[in-house]
Amino acid sequence: MKKKITIxxxxxxxxxxxxxxxxxxxxxxxxxKSKDDFIIHLYGNKKIIDQEIxxxxxxNDLVKVINAEGVVSDEETPLTAIKNSKNTSxxxxxxxxxxxxxxxxxxxxxxxxxxxxxxxxxxxxKEVSRPALAGLWPSKKGMSVVLDxxxxxECNEKNLVDFSEMGAALYKSIFPxxxxxVALLNIGSEEIKxxxxxxxxxxxxxGLSNDENFIFNGYIEGxxxxxxESNVIVTDGFTGNIALKTAEGTAKFLTDSLKKSLxxxxxxxxxxxxxxxxxxxxxxKLDPRKYNGAIFLGLNGPVVKSHGSTDAIGxxxxxxxxYRIIKGNLMHQLKNNLSHLDxxx
Amino acid sequence: MKKKITIxxxxxxxxxxxxxxxxxxxxxxxxxKSKDDFIIHLYGNKKIIDQEIxxxxxxNDLVKVINAEGVVSDEETPLTAIKNSKNTSxxxxxxxxxxxxxxxxxxxxxxxxxxxxxxxxxxxxKEVSRPALAGLWPSKKGMSVVLDxxxxxECNEKNLVDFSEMGAALYKSIFPxxxxxVALLNIGSEEIKxxxxxxxxxxxxxGLSNDENFIFNGYIEGxxxxxxESNVIVTDGFTGNIALKTAEGTAKFLTDSLKKSLxxxxxxxxxxxxxxxxxxxxxxKLDPRKYNGAIFLGLNGPVVKSHGSTDAIGxxxxxxxxYRIIKGNLMHQLKNNLSHLDxxx
Lengths: 345, 345
Prior knowledge:
The structure is a homodimer.
Chain A: E1 5-10, H1 19-31, E2 38-44, H2 46-54, E3 63-67, H3 78-84, H4 89-99, E4 104-107, H5 111-122, E5 132-139, E6 142-147, H6 157-174, E7 181-185, H7 196-207, E8 215-220, E9 232-234, H8 237-262, H9 266-285, E10 294-297, E11 303-305, H10 312-327, H11 330-344
Parallel strand pairs in A: 1-2, 1-4, 2-3, 4-11, 6-9, 7-8, 7-9
Antiparallel strand pairs in A: 5-6, 5-10, 10-11
Helix pairs in contact in A: 1-10, 3-5, 4-5, 6-7, 6-11
């Protein structure tokens, strides 16, 4: 019998936990009724979790609840996390990849602590210079991967090349039929633009461009991130974080302005009636909950971070992401892509 | 008699020049009919410019056409610009600040060349460590200034402090009644976040926070740029350029998606009829042409760069910007703000 995909979930992390976590799980189970190739490990206060589970018609053989008394608070800092987080639901859901059967861990809890204890428990892959945080962005042609989003404020060329290989592996695990097109985020598309580090990374990636792992598209500017020509956008954590948040802020500014405009008089309000389904589709396509889940790459096991403030639907999408990237064999893809770099050294 | 505000315009720079430049000028003149406190110097091929001027009812005493034979081509590189650009319309419109009466120069031509020859002709202000390129961003509360947008790929803390003072001076010249609130772009709002350079700039700016020139708002994250709480957002040229272009790309992605949604069926098309005026207002508020014009700060005279591809309306807004910042006494504000730093040294 083939081993089942095992997802270890920190049921106590994030706002409205464990309610939204279990509700999100229930959506996942309903949407995957026909499948029996996975099992969910839920970590946290068993009594409370069982109460939440009882609200839904959840089959016992797909979900295993494992008691963990402690919860990582939002106030906990990465500095004291290792001492204070042992045996919490977060800690144990990561540890499950070492002790148990888990293929991947998911939490909506404290981000800084999650990174520190993930690194501590799972340890860095020997092939990697630094781990990176990758996110999903909507694009004209579907979805892209952007990394690093803030795990590394400053990066050298070796880090950026590693991120390219890791991002390509992630993209391939989510979209197995596509060959990823990788680009470096820069302030111009000409080869002479940018910092020395970018230029060195460019020339290394160009050397890898006959690589079977990905196609190197060169530099990409900020205004092209969402045009879908490149699927993996690579940058340092400072720039990636600024770009991600600027995009979020711009989207919020625009949709708020639009909402205000469409509710300002009776005619525009009436127009919403006629455009209801179209606007709903528009909203649904861009729903940030669909892109919920940042993937911590470069450790000996994948960890997914859900937004703490997301709701059950957002949490569902991050469970779905866990399922997809394990189904797509992320760790195998990562090792394959990175081994390729090793040979080059 | 008080000296008139003199704006030197490169009439030959940008797409569809000089047609769009003269058309933009005509809009400016129509919108400022009641004023007589300015004069426009137009540089370029006099014969062609006069032909364009003849199409409109433009008063001779407000516009002076000064012949310049050469034009800086889009293919010219900054490296050879100083040799090849002498006596072009761009060169002479900047030189007008030295030889003539001009208070400010405006061009929609080759950006790289404009920077190099502006620096060469006008020279850096002695108080400034590096010049910066500032842009205007729409915000919830009106308009903000963001700098640097790409003149300096890497910056130290001294540069960032200079940019803060210069950005505050620019904001004050545009909005004389407001005390600018300055913030440093970073990946978190806590004092411990970010690079060493940012931390040093933060502590210097905090020391200046009782400054009469501006209020220091601390760090700002990318998603807050447009919320209007800070009016001057300071960053290095690499990050600023990425943020600006990412915002542009996100806005384009969203408006394209919206357009597509609203034209997908007969009902949604019908809705446009009802929301016509509201959508028009929405569009107008966010019209990028209103924010056309990046200001090159830190030289002994201001230079404004219009988007090359903008139309007559966009060019009009950049002429209007020139008028406003000279009316608001930009150079005086700059010297005042920067002298303040000198005293601190």
